[in-house]
Amino acid sequence: MSWSDWPFITSSVFSQLAIGAFISLACVILSGKLCFGQSDRVHRTMPALWLMLFVSLILREGNLMLMQVNSPYSLTNEVLLAIVFFGFAICYWFVEKGLVATEGFRKILLVNVMVIGIAYLVNGFVVRSTHWLVVSHFIATTLVGGMLFAHAALVRAQHKVEAVNHIFPIAGTLLAIVCFVMGASQLGDLEVLAETQNQVGPLIAQIISLGLLVAAVGVWLMPLITRSKPVQGVMTFALLLIFISSLFAGVGV
């Protein structure tokens, strides 16, 4: 791995977290359990997603321009879907914030953005399907990390949907267990690589990544275990842990 790979790794983590978070938020919005005030506060948190997607594109395209060579990170279906998702999501956000058109039309637009996001997920699975370790990292970042990010946004928006405080952490934990089992089962191959080619970096990075994933889920579950309401500080700390976990995962692949 070279230093030029870091912007691409960070770019992928940003886009995966943002798209996963939006899909989770959209599910809550479409459930109809948010009142107007709560929904408005949730939409106020979304610029953080747009900033992450924007930074993701800038990091990726800027680094490609600096490299000025053919790169495996050139335009792919995944990148194209992320760009299309960004454009449609921004359009939806402006329409929703401006209360343009009818509520039915805005929901249809939201569903369309979700469909693009799901297409991004499906494409990600298909592209990575031959490498289970990479698939586990994609699930951990996009689904577990995205759900955690969405939950943090809902906590910041002071939501009143108590079911979310149970469903999101439990679903995220189950997915994280799947990711951990998939990732841990592949450590043997990395150990062989370390012994035969003296490349211990990927093995160490993957162990740290899995450890941080477990730590992030543990922090996320604390309010549920202690039967208390989630607070922003705890959610932010858990989100930071899973972000760093995703970075280490990219380093070790």
Q: How would you describe the overall organization of this protein?
A:
- By secondary structure, the protein is an all-alpha fold.
- It contains ten helices and no strands.
- It has helices at residues 6-30, 36-45, 47-67, 77-97, 103-128, 132-156, 164-185, 187-197, 201-225, 232-252.
- The longest helix is centred in the middle third of the chain and has 26 residues, at 103-128.
- The chain is globular.
- The termini are close together.
- The model has no long low-confidence stretch (mean pLDDT 86).
In terms of topology, how is this protein built?
Elements: H1 6-30, H2 36-45, H3 47-67, H4 77-97, H5 103-128, H6 132-156, H7 164-185, H8 187-197, H9 201-225, H10 232-252
Helix pairs in contact: 1-3, 1-5, 1-6, 1-10, 3-4, 4-5, 5-6, 6-7, 6-10, 7-9, 8-9, 9-10
Features:
mainly alpha; 253 residues; 10 helices
How far do the termini sit from each other?
9 Å
Q: Major β-sheet, in short?
A: none
Oligomeric composition of the shown chains: single chain
Q: Give the strand content.
A: under 5%
Gross morphology is: globular
From N to C, what is the helix and strand string?
HHHHHHHHHH
The percent of residues in helical segments reads over 70%
Mean pLDDT: 86
Please outline what is shown here.
The protein has 253 residues and is mainly α. It has helices at 6-30, 36-45, 47-67, 77-97, 103-128, 132-156, 164-185, 187-197, 201-225, 232-252.
